[in-house]
Amino acid sequence: MTVSAKTALGALALLASGFTAAVCQPAKPNPAKPKPLVSHIYTADPSAHVFNGKLYIYPSHDVEGNVAEDDEGAHFNMRDYHILSMDNIGGKVTDHGVALDLKDIPWAGRQLWAPDAAYKNGTYYLYFPVKDKQDVFRMGVATSKSPTGPFKAEPKPIPGSYSIDPAVFTDTDGKSYMYLGGIWGGQLQRWHTGTYEANGSKTDLKKDNEPALSAKVARLSNDMLTFDEPLKDIQILDKEGKPLLGGDHDRRFFEGGWMHKYKDKYYFSYSTGDTHFLAYATGDSPYGPFTYQGVLMNPVTGWTTHHSIVEFKGKWYIFYHDVELTGKTHLRNVKVREITRKPDGTFVTITP
Ligand code: FUB
């Protein structure tokens, strides 16, 4: 996550004042310069899914919370989720209103960060990270009969869960997995011994020559409400089979993991955080190990970078955010553009 020194992005205060319509402007796809999908609210961390032939986006809902900025991202003080949907890329985007509110999550303290969603057996699941009342990030889950909610939160966090940025992937055999983790403000480094270190590092372990901190994965139970196994490390290796190191900030995992499958290969993509790349690595199993392949997207304007990848009507798209509307790190807007793959399945790097 963010550090205060990195937030001075200039004062592009292009705030869309007074515009509160629920149905938003069509966003014309222009690969050269994609537009924010909506501008009446600020949105980030878009997790895109296709349910019943329609595209749904589960983003964070950024707000100006008047919370002082700190090195752990306190100013990312989000309090609810709105779900967006669209029938076509470039068509009308609908904001379905508040789907889940912080006040309706019994165990939550503050900061509703990047969510994801899944569907199984007639129920939609919304997964979300939020700090508990002790200020420790945990993963929550909420359910609904509709992809747009309203969602009802389970009374407790998912047992054994921690850190941020859940991404739920359902494989072709029907098994679902949650990927999670984020260093710095996402607290992953404080769990490196297996228990939470409240006074642990605010950034990383400062062990540049040791394997980098890993994202985590666990298979979900059949009811999608708990982990079926303890969280495991996601290993990301270089082409020589060596783990990426903690000091390799251009390539190591930072936050915002996403999993998709293409032609039987598993693609784990993620943000490198302080170097602002979206990178990816491929493997032969949902658990990895994954081999680093390169940069999926060069840095966007803004400090954070967070994405999802989805196939819709025969084409592959990346949903991501930048700060075009405000110039402020914590007031972001989501965008979409098509992805181009080379014949071997690797990506043509996108420069936004
Ligand atoms: O939106 C809050 C945090 O910023 C997310 O959890 C990170 O991935 C980064 O985008």
From TrEMBL:
What does the UniProt keyword field contain? Carbohydrate metabolism, Glycosidase, Hydrolase, Polysaccharide degradation, Signal, Xylan degradation
Q: Which domain of life is it from?
A: Bacteria
User: Which SUPFAM superfamilies did the record assign?
Assistant: Arabinanase/levansucrase/invertase (SSF75005)
Signal sequence span is 1-22
Identify its protein family: Belongs to the glycosyl hydrolase 43 family.
| Name by which UniProt lists this protein | Alpha-N-arabinofuranosidase
Organism from which the protein derives: Spirosoma utsteinense
